[in-house]
Structure formats: C-alpha cells, structure tokens
Amino acid sequence: MFGDYSIGDLGAIFAMQGFAGLILFSVYVLMALGLAIIFGQMGVINMAHGEFMILGAYVTWMTSNAFQTYLPALFPGYFFVAMILAFLASGALGMLVEWGLIRHLNRRPLDTLLATWGLSLILQQAYRSIFGAREVGVELPQWMLGSKQITDTIEVPINGIFVMCLTFLITAAVAYVMYKSRWGRQVRAVVQNRVMAGAVGINTEKVDRYTFGLGCGIAGVAGSAFTMIGSTGPTSGQLYIVDTFLVVVFGGAASLFGTIASAFSISQAQSTMEFFMSGSMAKVLTLLAIVAILMMRPQGLFALKVRK
Amino acid sequence: MADEKDQGLHSPFRRKLLMGMAALPAMTMLPRTSFAQAPATAAVNTTGLAVTDTEVTVGILHSITGTMAISETGSVQAEKLAIEQINASGGVLGRKIKFIQEDGASDWPNFAEKAKKLLVNDKCAAVMGCWTSASRKAVLPVFEQYNGMLYYPTFYEGLEQSKNVIYTGQEATQQIIAGLDWVNKTKGAKSFYLLGSDYIWPRTSNKIARKHIEGHLQGCKVVGEEYFPLGHTQFNSVINKIKLTKPDVIYAIIVGGSNVAFYKQLKAAGIDLSKQTLLTISVTEDEIDGIGGENIAGAYACMKYFQSLDNPNNKAFVAAFKKMWGEKTVIGDVTQAAYLGPWLWKLTVEKAGSFDIDKVAAASPGVEFKGAPEGYVRVHENHHLWSKTRVGKAKLDGQYELVYETADLVEPDPFPKGYQ
C-alpha cells in the first residue's frame, strides 16, 4: 500500500498516526480514571459510569447555551467553566448515589453491579425525558476547532492536544491526592483494612462518599471533554462503557499505574492495527489479545500486592 | 413523563376541540345525507378489523425509549401529524383514525411482541412503524402470519419484498446509483473511499456502490473500504488513511453516535469539506442536529427528501410540522417518508373501497400521492415507491441546499441484477 508515496509523505503520516495513538491513549485514561478510582478503592463496579460522563456532557451543553445567550463575549472561554460545573454536577450526583444506594450494598459487589446498572437505565430515561430523545449539538468556541499545522504535511487536531493536556493535569492531580495528601492516605488505609481504619479514627463512610464523588466528578469532566470528539445524547454513555471497563480490568483493578499502562497498550495496539486493517477487525484482534492475556494473568497487568 | 411530545399534543388537541365546538351549530344545518356517505362497516371490513361506523384503529410502533429513540422520534411525530390532518379532512372512508401507540423500546423481540399485540388484540387495520432493518425483520413474520399491513419509513438495503409491507423509504439502488453518477459527472470523481458502520445496511449499500463504481463508471476505482463497530468513537486512524490515499470522494455510511464522532474528528484533523468531496447517504437533518452544522458544512448527502425542498406541498408540511412539534424541530428524509405512510394507506383504502388487508395490498400498486412533501410518489408493483433522488449540500445552519435532482422518478429495484 505504500508503493506510490514519497518518504516525506509516509513520515508525515506515521507522525500523525503516532499522535492519533496518543490522543486515543489520553481519551482512554480520561474515561477510565474515574472508574478505576471507584473500582480500585471501593470495590464497586459502577455500571452507570457512562451516564455520569453524559451528565457532564449535558452540563457542558447547557453552559454553552447559557454563555451564548447571556455572555456571548466570554464564549471562547466557556469550556473551562463548563468543565468545572460538570465536575461539580457529576460529583454531587455521585455523592447522592453513594448516600442513597451504594452504602447500603457495602461488600456486595454483584448487587452494586446490578443496582448501578439499574441506575444507568434510570439516568438514560431521565436524560431522554429532560433533554429530549434526540442528540444535542454542543457548539465549541472557534479556537478549539480545526487542526494545528506543525510542518507542511503534519497536522494535529487541536481538540486532541486539549484532551492530552487535560488528561495529564487530571492524572497528576489524582496521583497527588491519592499518594501525597492526608485524605489519600485515609482512602488507602480504608482500602487495606476498613475495620482498622475505622478504629484509628478515620470516618470510613465519609471517605467512601468522597471517593465515589471524586470518581464520578472525573467522569463528568471526561464527558465534558468528549463533547469535542463524540456525541451527546441520552445513550451516548454506552459508547464508552465497554472500552472503559476493558482498560480498568486489563490494567489491574486497584492500580492507578496499571490503568495508565493498560490504556497505553490498548490504544497503541488499536490505532496501529486500525491503520493496517479495517476498524472492525482491529477491534476484534485487540479484544482477542486482551482475553488471551487476561486468561494468563486474571488479576490484570498490575495488581496491588496485599496480604489476604 | 413530561416529554416534549406530550406537551406538543395538548395544544393541537385543544385546538381541534375548539374547532369542533365551533362547527357544532353549522352541523345541525347540514343535510342528513352527509352522514350517510360513509359506506356500511360490514361492507368495508369483512375480516374483523377494528373498524366501526365512525372510527378505524391503526397502530404506531416505534422506539420511544432506548438507543433508537434518537432516530424514531421524528417518525412518530410525522405519523401523528399525518393522522391528525387526515382526520381533519374527513378521515378514511368517512371514519376517523384512532391510533394505538406501542413502544418497541429499541429491542427487536419486543417489536415482534408488540406487533402481535397490535394485530391480534387491537386488530389494527394498518401499522406505521419500525426503523431499523433488524426491527423490520423481527416483525415481518408476525405481519405475514396474522396478515397485517406495515408502512415502513426508512431507507434500507433492499433484498426484501412482502405483500404485507409498503416501503415508503428508498431501497439502496435508488439512493446510491444516482448519487454516484452525479458525483462522477459534476465533480469528475475517479477514486472512492467507502466507509460504513458494521451491519447489513452499510455493507449491502457499499457493495452496490462498489459494483456501480467498478462496473458502470468509466475509469473509476475504490481505493479503500472500511467498517467500524456500531458506536465506534475513534476515527483518527482511518482519517490518516484517507489523507494518505487522497480519494476524490469519501463515501460515508456511518450511523448513530459514531456519526457525530466521525465528522467532529474529520473537521479537527483539518479535512476541509469544501475541498474534499464527501458524499453520505446516512446523515439527514436529524443527525446534523447532533453533529453540528459547522462540522459537516460542505458535505453532500444523497436521499429523496430535504427539509429545504422548494415546493408548495413541502412548505405546507414543514409549517404544519413545526406548528405541531415546535419551531426548533427539524425534518429529515425518514420523517418525511413516515409522513407518507398514513396518507398512502388512506388513499389505498379509498381506492380499494375496503379496509381488508388483502384488498389494500392488491390495490397498493399504482396508488399515487400528489400531496407528498417530496413532490409526487407512486407505489410500484413491488410495494416500494417510485421517487426522485436528490443531492443536497450541507450548510452551516444544519439544512441541506438542493444541488441536484433526477429528472424522472427512479424505479425501485429491491433485487438489483448485477449488484449482488
């Protein structure tokens, strides 16, 4: 397939293709981060993760409309406000859900699975009733559209750069909170031994609530960012959920580093193969490889070593 | 459920009530014969359908919940509008249409179950419904077993024909061939990159497109053909491949949420649709709502109807639709095809002089609807419609501008020879 092209052309395409892989990597990390926190720290499988993302997307859509109507002059910067609002909205809903639903199902992972799946259906229908069954179009400020010309032949999409920066910032922030802050220590203590953590004075219920809220909030930010690259409709969250679980499970549920490593390997495999074969076949091969690896390493790529 | 649909229903209903009351005094003055126009029920309904002296029941069977609600909402709205208009103009054989709406819930076995309910329990004289091919395939045996009549609105892959179905959308060859000829002739396109979501309609359509490009267009070739799982959201790799192969035309049959991702990423990757020709058969005005006009402006779509069509029928239709469902609603190809369903059924019943399914099926070929928003349609022997094929260019505001239409109606050919 490369016979007719000059070396320069091919170099440019491979550079852009490498960049496409990095964008996909950022998207995967951003999707999976919230789920990894909730799954890893609380053992809760949040099937409604995609719906929390879409809440963020709808918040972005509403913010965009509000800015267009009331503050058209500030429209170019609305996206940052929207992401903060998306974080707050999804986080608040997450905390409410934890308080009303999840905490009653403590230590019953299969029940939380079912309950959050039900929640995802309820949220989907709620979005449909509130925002209508049709997809909504989120308008972006001009500077976020289009691509950046790096050399004559290499162009990279601006929204891709944006997602990469965002992912880097959020991952750094989460890593800092989890591994450096006092609250992060409490979270890790609860994960390792809930009873002992309670005994030394950690309010485990509160830790759970904020952990769940943080996970959902990050999902909201992800949803907000994905309005740049995907659709916003009542069931759009379903488009992401499979890939998200794949990344988290493959990486090893309890490990933040594992999530990142798994997102990297899946995204690179996927985007490289997609270049050489059809999209469907690339997906099939990626899934087969993951299944094979998980059969050999059921705990995922990186498992936290704890005494059981 | 405080849905937009429900709110929309109230005001026309109230309007109708008021109109009805205003007409009361006038009615007492009418000669009695005007009531006797409707033929006797025993004569027009010999098979026990839900027909009374004043009413006839039809079914509406679409997904109003689940993934497909995005697409099917417009069809439901169009069918309700058509039914209301038919009732306002005197009904069918002097009988008002009453509809029973069931929710297919985007679940194909559920479609079959609801279809059975509409035919067996409710004895509907006709059903307007289904959207995806999968749902149509699920209900088809039910309609054939219990002898019902289905009006199916979506453009689809063809390869089907049933006595019990009238296909009011285009089958694949109607939608594809004229568009490819046009792009070849006016844009001088020689190389095509075919894209699609991975299921039967895009695959069959691209197969027809490939046969036509390679067999019927001089010196043209297909430089790539790719499919993506439904719901795929990452198109950067294929966009790079497109940049590498530099096709004259990107031929895209991507559906659902993937559509939005595809066009947003195409724009973000710097592919300017005013320079790169893109021809799609899967993006109607409905989809542009989600994609955003700025992301798809400049692309061409090939189908039979655009909201912007400039003819008196369409102007009245668009005005009535917006009055019933809100100023902001848009009307896509399938919505218009769904609107044809109740009207074609009314015309056929009146031609047959009977509600009986067999008589309606037999009377269908040759039925013409001159009030169609798309202009004029006629039912073919094979229960598909003769219709014109049109090419539109997407504009920033999410509407299409008509750039080409076939001079004559295109014959439906669900089993195209040499294209399979």
Topology:
The complex is a heterodimer of chains A (308) and B (420).
Chain A: H1 7-42, H2 49-70, H3 78-100, H4 109-131, E1 147-149, E2 155-157, H5 158-179, H6 182-192, H7 194-199, H8 204-226, H9 237-251, H10 256-276, H11 279-296
Antiparallel strand pairs in A: 1-2
Helix pairs in contact in A: 1-5, 1-8, 1-9, 1-10, 2-3, 2-4, 2-8, 2-9, 3-8, 5-6, 6-8, 9-10, 10-11
Chain B: H1 4-29, H2 33-36, H3 41-44, E1 55-62, H4 69-88, E2 96-103, H5 108-121, E3 127-129, H6 133-145, E4 150-152, E5 165-167, H7 172-187, E6 191-197, H8 200-216, E7 221-228, H9 236-245, E8 249-253, H10 257-268, E9 277-280, H11 285-291, H12 293-296, E10 300-303, H13 312-325, H14 333-352, H15 357-363, E11 368-369, E12 377-379, E13 385-386, E14 390-394, E15 400-405
Parallel strand pairs in B: 1-2, 1-3, 3-4, 4-5, 6-7, 6-8, 8-9, 9-10
Antiparallel strand pairs in B: 10-14, 11-12, 12-13, 14-15
Pfam families (chain B): Peripla_BP_5
Organism (chain B): Rhodopseudomonas palustris
Protein name (chain B): Urea ABC transporter substrate-binding protein
Explain the overall architecture.
The complex is a heterodimer of chains A (308) and B (420). The relative contact order of chain A is 0.18. Helices cover 71% and strands 2% of the residues of chain A. The longest helix of chain A has 36 residues, at 7-42. Chain A has helices spanning 7-42, 49-70, 78-100, 109-131, 158-179, 182-192, 194-199, 204-226, 237-251, 256-276, 279-296, and strands at 147-149, 155-157. The mean pLDDT of chain A is 88. Chain A has a single domain (7-296), classed as ABC transporter involved in vitamin B12 uptake, BtuC, CATH 1.10.3470. Chain B has 420 residues and is an alpha/beta fold. Chain B has 2 domains: 4-170 and 311-386, Rossmann fold (3-Layer(aba) Sandwich); 172-303 and 389-405, Response regulator (Rossmann fold), CATH 3.40.50. Chain B has 15 helices and 15 strands. Chain B has helices at 4-29, 33-36, 41-44, 69-88, 108-121, 133-145, 172-187, 200-216, 236-245, 257-268, 285-291, 293-296, 312-325, 333-352, 357-363; strands at 55-62, 96-103, 127-129, 150-152, 165-167, 191-197, 221-228, 249-253, 277-280, 300-303, 368-369, 377-379, 385-386, 390-394, 400-405. Chain B has a 7-stranded mixed β-sheet, sandwiched between helices. Chain B has a 5-stranded parallel β-sheet with strand order 2-1-3-4-5, sandwiched between helices. A 3-stranded antiparallel β-sheet of chain B has the order 11-12-13, covered by helices on one side. The longest helix of chain B has 26 residues, at 4-29. The chains are: A mainly alpha (308), B alpha/beta (420). At the A-B interface, α1, α4, α5, α9 and α10 of A face α4, β7, α9, α10 and α11 of B.
